[in-house]
What we know:
A six-stranded mixed β-sheet has the order 3-4-2-1-14-13. It has a six-stranded mixed β-sheet with strand order 5-6-7-8-12-9. A two-stranded antiparallel sheet has the order 10-11. It has a single domain, classed as Deoxyribonuclease I, Chain A (4-Layer Sandwich). The chain starts with a strand and ends with a strand. α3 (about 120-140) runs parallel beside α4. The chain has helices spanning about 15-25, 45-50, 120-140, 170-185, 190-195, 230, and strands at about 1-5, 30-35, 50-55, 65-70, 75-80, 95-100, 100-110, 145-150, 190, 205, 220, 220-225, 235-240, 255-260. The protein has six helices and 14 strands. It is α+β, with helices and mostly antiparallel strands and about 260 residues long.
Amino acid sequence: MRLVTWNVNSIRARLGRLLELLAEHRPDVVFLQETKVDDAQFPRLDLEAAGYRAADLSGGRWCGVALLTPTAAGDPTDVCAGLAGEPNPEQARWVEATIGSVRYVSVYVPNGQAVGTEPFADKLVFLAAAARRIAELAASGPLVVAGDFNVAPADLDVWNPEAFVGSTHVTEEERAARAGLLAAGGLVDAYRELHPDEGPEAHTWWDYRAGAYHKRQGLRIDHVLGTPDLAGHLSAAHVDRMFRKGAAPSDHAPVVVDLDA
């Protein structure tokens, strides 16, 4: 079974690359973030032509999340769009659905902008609401929560920790809140389970500016988190950097996780 999470940074701009990813990896579940389209613009027909169905929450110009599954697997069920307690529901940052016997969530955590600002406070509120929901879901059965968490959990996940002192994504508050998600559901970080010591090879985001990708100046902020019953089946995980290269790349690369069942 193959899971892929990818912040596409506009599904319209990246549709060709997304269809390429679907054809190459044939994932069983895809978690998308920053689709940046309203409901009428979401490319359902293009995805169906590629053999995939979507459960999405489309949020217009800036946000938007989705779950994709092969048409042959049947439609996702019990779709729930939005997160109880999130500070700005109109931003479209959370969608969940059941596929088979597993509950899946695609999440796009707020960036936070700058420490000490209202958006930073909203980010912590969102993470607290996510922890509460994860605790509820994990108590009911197998769960995978994947997406762009906008938190680098440890210094190993940052190309140069000294360059980020006083910045978002690396503060003690954010890291504690992200750790709270794992504790709330007993979740494990799939990539770190298999690659506990990787540095730049694990990074998933690079600024478009100043050649950051080629200078290996990245962050690991895109994660796949799962309950232990799923983590026990982990067989492989990698960051597919080919999708950060080439024509019209996102500033994120997909994270690909394989399970043996």
